[in-house]
Amino acid sequence: MNMDNRKEKEFYFSITEEWEDERIDKALNGLIGSLSRSHIQKLLKDNHVTVNRKGVKANYRLRCGDEVRLELPPAAETNILPENIPLDVLYEDDDILVVNKPKGMVVHPAPGHFSGTLVNAIMYHCRGDLSGINGMMRPGIVHRIDKDTTGSVIICKNDFSHNHIAAQLKDHSVVRRYRAICYGSCNEEEGTINVPIGRHPVDRKKMAVNVPNGREAITHYKVLQHFPGYTYIECCLETGRTHQIRVHMASIGHPLLGDEVYAGKRKSPFRLEGQCLHAKTLGFVHPRNGGYIETDAPMPAYFVHLLEIL
């Protein structure tokens, strides 16, 4: 493979025998470790990748001698308005921002939530220095947590850091430890739930285990303290599927306290706004200097108060 990076935003490859007959999206993912396969597929779809000066689809099979050019487009302008919303900053430098998201805040704009989101807040805080890989509605966002889940969220200030963090999320090397309170008493002091998660076949707003469209999902949990009728647990994620902890714990008969979506008929006797789930610890390798960074989001007041009551 002959490679020529003429600019940080452009990549050129001359295909040799070792990549013959490989899918172009898979090959580029292997050749450019900082770009996720989904990002490469989007670039292919938007004609930012050419083979012999012609656009191709993601399933194109490479041939020896093909000249491949990939260009990273500039971040798109967005119509989302910055808002002066206070942020609890856990870490910040020129590439990365880690914030402690409060309960009730949506991560990025969506129908019904175009203001008051974390994106509105970080746009004001970062003054426009955010990655554009996930599009106009999600500048800087490389992963997310649910509206009523509190805790650590990584924000990427440029595409370089976004690609590196996305690659770490993909290979499951980001440390993500959560605290939660679930219904019932867990019989096992620790365990691993390795069950695929996908969109619910009937209720499209929910996720479910063991569905035909399910993707690999792995959650490790351990008991921190037993209470009458409840258990305080720590969950560590290997994968990051939508609602993963909530769905996995419900699947073993221990839905999260306050979870109005997955707890079924169980109703919380406490005044809660959604599930008791906090993204406490986040650890990753810095994209620029290679050093390991670990942040710890303080437990929210409602959670601490609830533990005291229990």
Descriptive report:
- The protein has three domains: 2-71, Structural Genomics Hypothetical 15.5 Kd Protein In mrcA-pckA Intergenic Region, Chain A, CATH 3.10.290; 89-171, Pseudouridine synthase (2-Layer Sandwich); 176-275, 2-Layer Sandwich (Pseudouridine synthase).
- The protein contains six helices and 16 strands.
- The chain has helices at residues 24-31, 37-45, 118-126, 159-170, 244-251, 301-309, and strands at residues 2-7, 10-14, 49-51, 54-55, 67-71, 89-92, 96-101, 150-156, 175-183, 190-194, 197-199, 207-209, 218-227, 230-237, 277-285, 292-296.
- The strands form three sheets. Strands 6, 7, 8, 9, 10, 13, 14, 15 and 16 form a nine-stranded mixed beta sheet that branches. Strands 1-2-5-3-4 form a five-stranded antiparallel beta sheet.
Task: Please sum up the structure shown.
With 310 residues, this protein is of the alpha+beta class.
Mean pLDDT across every amino acid position: 89
Coarse morphology: globular
- The counted number of beta strands is 16
- Low-pLDDT segments: 1-7
Q: At the fourth CATH level, what is the homologous superfamily of the largest domain?
A: Pseudouridine synthase
